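User: Run a structure prediction on this.
Assistant: Running it now.
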Amino acid sequence: MLAPENHVHEVGEDTARCTNCILKKIEEAMSVFETAIWNWYWTNVTPFAKESGLIPMMIADTGIKGIAKSWLIRGLGMIRDTFEKISAEKTMDKN
């Protein structure tokens, strides 16, 4: 992803594969709960948290229970899956 100040397109440029543009469209379509999951992910899911296995404890610390917890976990998985797809597409583009 590019920093907002570096995210520029020429007039008429195809933005269909631009990570920033794709994520902006997704963000605009998200519910309040989905936005909260997205924000939680960006605040908490750091390389250190992943490598040290802290994510399950951090999820438990949210106090979210029941179906909302299931949605949180599903949402976090969807975010991860999206980034994996973007990474795979970028790798394919380089080849």
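The chain has two domains: 1-30, 31-95.
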